[in-house]
Design goal:
The complex is a heterotrimer of chains A (356), B (269) and C (307). By secondary structure, chain A is an alpha+beta fold. In chain A, 24% of the residues lie in helices and 36% in strands. Chain A is elongated, with a radius of gyration of 25 Å. The longest helix of chain B has 35 residues. Chain C is mainly α. Chain C has a domain of 185 residues: MetI-like (MetI-like fold). In chain C, the strands form 2 sheets. A two-stranded antiparallel ribbon of chain C has the order 1-2. In chain C, a hairpin with a 5-residue loop joins strand 1 and strand 2. The two termini of chain C are 19 Å apart. Classes of the chains: A alpha+beta (356), B mainly alpha (269), C mainly alpha (307).
Chain lengths: 356, 269, 307
């Protein structure tokens, strides 16, 4: 197993009586592209800032390659941050911005200059070295901020929503660039975002955070296909949450009964699922339309929305619950009219009983 | 027609604004005009000349006014420099140092010289120096000026500092700068327009002060305003108008500079 | 909740956290030692006995305050009656400052409104024009006013030559001259805070009022003035307080008959005729009045802030 770069142990962060982060445990591996994903206000930026050293922690420990850094000020921590607003020093040109950290570390002028050239080359900004930040475009400023943070060869690079200020087109190309830089430099990246697409496409692993707590850690596939709880299932992609009765849970599988039905089936279950009552997550694209009498569930079509490659169809179940499904938009697909009675089916292996 | 629809427009407000400007400027402009009067009388117009400006620089009373001007300028430079330094540190404490003991009192304290009526400050300062047995003179004027210059230097400096986000210094710390380096290399250069602006305003305030200086100056030393006041007590003479015009221009130049420096800083941001 | 977090985190992560006291030390030292301490000293002096050539004798005495409020006859042995001389000077000062404040508001509000409703670079030019006179030496401005309104000054000369008047209007050395001088001295103080309030005023309120059939006048009195009231109060205080303790305007424009508090205080420290404890006592009374006004203002601001 690879070395742990950042180890956060039972960390809590309070502001007065307000708890911003509660009992956070995270192990970020060496050379990993690790993403903290969550809605705004969930505590992900606070978590990043505790690693950088801008926020003191209330309880627990933060270790960087085994060394406890919780009491070190930011200028003593070998981690660098790319800030959301970039915060390029407005009175210094690009070169002076990038060399700043190297000078503070006391590197000699020649080595430092060579390193500046190296990173400016990496972000393709050589010809802008003498410009002031105000003379650069948003994308260029973003790359200067990246170069400035990379120049001192930090052990961990922290990125606080660095793409949020860019427009959509630029964002997509910068994503690839960032991933490439992470791979070539081998530096551990900790990336904060509220954009799930960004998280899913770039990361080796993702930590989903809500209400100051880590909800789930895993690869993009893990968190999409095997969500742990209702928050993760709902926040990542779309899902249908169906109330079910749970008759048994064992070995990662559960036996459930659908509402109103007598249909009993077995499906994968999250670690915290319990016998009794539970929520079943079924992704819209995993639901298929069948004749009413053949379905696990039955209902009436209430809405259809054209989405280009797909159609989205809402079906109201007998109990009033709405199930959304995605159908591919092709010649063969039969799209029901509003008011049509339909049956719904899903492969039980793709549904998942969540922690309650 | 458009005006009738404009909810911001009130009939009569424009003429009142012109009246306001007229009231503010008319006396000053008239003194400026009469300072070029060739006549010995201040009322009768005797043609334009620079005669009284010559009188200011080379006339009988020129030595007195030159000495007073020198005192005014040296005191203003020293008082403004000291006050600006103190105010810069204070602004850093108030805006960039989080919470500390006595912070809420500090804000009131910095603004105290603005709240206490000038004449009261003057009396208190005179009594204080007399009580501790300190002879009034150049030094007491300087000390008193430093005190009341602090809030005037503080205002533009704090306004500027409020516009500088903490993130710049955080980046510096993140890039291994010590706090002193973050202050010297990042905060101070970004603050420069505010600091210059604060210095210029403090300078003008010191140069203009009459009441406090009049109380704490002691015998045998004059600043420009006290010298002018002394002369005016014997009646307004044409050379006073020339000096007034010069001093007025100095004020306008400095305030304009302060204003432009402040704006320049904003544009750069 | 995000705003709450942001607000709290700034106080937590301030760059120079822990250095506040150190950075503040010079201000505390200078203002504490050369202003707070002197005011305390002044309070003590007001309870001392006067020395006849200026200065004090270190002996406790209530004479200064007694002299202010009571008349005990020429030899000090008559039964005390209320002494009106000084109370009247205070009354006159309050009246003069009040009149100056009223006229400043009358001119200052429309001006502030007009400037705040300009658009583009014009606005800052207008604002700058209002600010400049404030920075011009107060002494010089007062002298200019004195020069202008003298009996043989340019104002009278022109009015005479234009035939508007047949003999000079006597303005100088009247209480009107003092009011004019105070008005002229502190007018920019009225404009600036009102301007700041109008800047923050949301014109949608005026639109709603107009939409609901309010006339301009009704919009002004029922909507605009109540909303920009904090600025109006601030402006009034900024004009009233310095007017109350003014020295130059009453001294240069008012002459001996229009004595105000400032002149009364100044006289007590001039040469050998002065009375330091009395001067200190009058200063303390003035300072207390100003503090009352400022406390009222602070409470008003707190109330507005709490809304």
């Amino acid at each position: 197993m690879s070395e742990i770069a950042v180890d956060i142990l039972n960390m809590t962060k309070r502001y007065g009586s307000f708890v911003a982060l509660r009992d956070v445990c995270l192990s970020i591996k060496d050379n990993e592209f690790f993403t903290l994903l969550g809605p705004s206000g969930c505590g992900k930026t606070t978590l990043l800032r505790t690693i950088a050293g801008f926020e003191a922690i209330s309880e627990g420990a933060i270790k960087l390659y085994g060394e406890d850094i919780a009491d070190l000020p930011p200028n003593k921590r070998p981690v660098n941050t790319v800030f959301q607003q970039y915060a390029l020093f407005p009175h210094m040109n690009v070169r002076a911005n990038v060399i700043f950290g190297l000078q503070r570390l006391g590197q000699d002028e020649t080595t430092a200059r060579a390193r500046v050239d190296e990173v400016l080359d990496m972000v393709q900004l050589m010809e802008f070295a003498d410009r002031l930040p105000a003379q650069l475009s948003g994308g260029q400023q973003q790359r200067v901020a990246l170069a400035r943070a990379l120049a001192p060869k930090p052990k961990v690079l922290l990125l606080d929503e660095p793409l949020s200020a860019l427009d959509l087109k630029l964002r997509q190309s910068v994503r690839q660039e960032l991933q490439q830089i992470q791979q070539t430099t081998g530096i551990t990246f900790v990336f904060v975002t509220h954009d799930q697409e960004e998280a899913l496409t770039m990361s080796d692993r993702i930590a989903v955070i809500a209400d100051g707590q880590v909800q789930q850690v895993g690869s993009a596939r893990d968190i999409y296909e095997a969500p742990q709880n209702r928050f993760v299932a709902d926040f990542i992609g779309e899902t249908n949450l169906i109330d079910v009765a749970v008759s048994s849970v064992s070995g990662g599988y559960a036996t459930c009964v659908l509402p109103g039905g007598d249909v009993q089936f077995t499906c994968p279950a999250a670690a915290g699922a319990v016998v009794g009552h539970g929520h079943l997550s079924v992704r819209p694209e995993r639901v298929s339309l069948v004749k009413p009498q053949d379905g696990l569930l039955r209902g009436v079509t209430t809405r259809q929305v054209y989405l280009g490659t797909d159609m989205s169809v809402d079906v109201r179940l007998e109990g009033g619950k709405i199930i959304t499904l995605r159908l591919q938009n092709s010649e063969e697909t039969h799209i029901p009219e509003i008011g049509d009675p339909v049956g719904l089916n899903f492969e039980t292996g793709t549904a998942r009983l969540l922690e309650d | 027609m458009a005006r009738k629809l404009d909810i911001r427009h009130f009939p009569g407000f424009l003429p009142i604004t012109y009246l306001c400007l007229f009231l503010l400027y008319a006396p000053l402009i008239i003194v400026m005009i009469y300072s070029f009067n060739d006549s010995n009388s201040i009322t009768i117009w005797g043609g334009a000349s620079l005669r009284w400006y010559g009188e200011v620089f080379w006339g009988v009373e020129s030595a007195k006014f030159k000495a007073a001007a020198l005192n005014s300028i040296t005191i203003a430079v020293m008082a403004a420099t000291t006050a600006t330094t103190i105010a810069t540190l204070a602004a850093t404490a108030m805006l960039k140092a989080g919470r500390f003991r006595g912070k809420s009192v500090s804000f009131a304290l910095i603004n105290l010289p603005l709240m206490v009526p000038e004449i009261v400050t003057a009396v208190a300062t005179l009594i204080f120096f007399s009580a501790i047995g300190f002879t009034t003179g150049y030094l007491t004027i300087l000390v008193a000026h430093i005190v009341f210059c602090i809030p005037f230097a503080y205002l533009p400096i704090a306004a500027r500092m409020q516009g500088i986000e903490d993130v710049y210094e955080q980046v510096a710390l993140d890039l291994y700068a010590t706090r002193f380096q973050a202050f010297r290399l990042i905060l101070l250069p970004l603050m420069a327009p505010g600091i210059i602006s604060g210095f210029l305003l403090a300078f003008i305030i010191s140069l203009d002060d009459f009441i406090i200086t009049n109380f704490v100056k002691g015998a045998g030393i004059e600043t420009l305003p006290t010298a002018i006041f002394g002369a005016v007590k014997q009646g307004i003479k044409p050379n006073i108008m020339a000096i007034s015009t010069l001093l007025l221009l100095v004020s306008v130049v400095f305030v304009t500079l302060s204003y432009l420096v402040g704006r320049m800083g904003q544009n750069k941001k | 909740m995000a705003a709450q977090i942001a607000k709290k985190s700034t106080s937590n992560t301030s760059t120079y956290a822990g250095l506040g006291v150190f950075l503040m030390l010079p201000s505390w030292a200078v203002i504490g030692f050369f202003l707070v301490l002197p005011v305390g000293m002044m309070l003590i002096y007001s309870f001392l006995t006067k020395e006849f050539r200026g200065g004090v004798i270190w002996e406790f005495s209530l004479n200064a305050y007694d002299q202010f409020f009571f008349d005990r006859g020429l030899f000090g042995d008559a039964p005390p009656v209320i002494e009106w001389t000084y109370i009247n000077i205070f009354w006159r000062s309050i009246w003069q400052a009040g009149v100056a404040t009223f006229f400043s508001l009358l001119i200052g509000f429309p001006t502030a409104w007009f400037i705040a409703t300009r658009t583009g670079p014009n606005k800052s030019v207008w604002l700058f024009l209002i600010t400049i006179p404030y920075w011009v030496n107060l002494l010089i401005r007062t002298i200019s006013m004195k020069f202008l309104i003298r009996d043989t000054g340019p104002l009278n000369e022109w009015l005479l030559s234009l035939g508007v008047i047949s003999e000079p209007i006597h303005i100088i050395n009247t209480s009107f001259a003092v009011q004019l001088g105070l008005f002229y001295s502190y007018l920019p103080f009225m404009v600036l805070p009102i301007y700041a309030s109008v800047e923050r005023y949301n014109f949608a309120y005026s639109e709603v009022a107009a939409d609901l059939y309010a006339s301009r006048r009704a919009t002004l009195t029922k909507i605009i003035i109540p909303i920009v009231k904090p600025g109006i109060i601030a402006g009034c205080i900024l004009v009233f307080v310095p007017s109350l303790g003014a020295f130059l305007a009453p001294d240069l424009l008012g002459g001996a008959k229009n004595f105000m508090i400032g002149s009364l205080i100044e006289e007590q420290f001039k040469g050998n005729a002065g009375n330091w404890p009395f001067g200190a006592a009058v200063s303390m009374i003035l300072l207390s009045m100003v503090l009352v006004v400022l406390t009222f203002y602070a409470r008003q601001q707190a109330k507005e802030g709490a809304r």
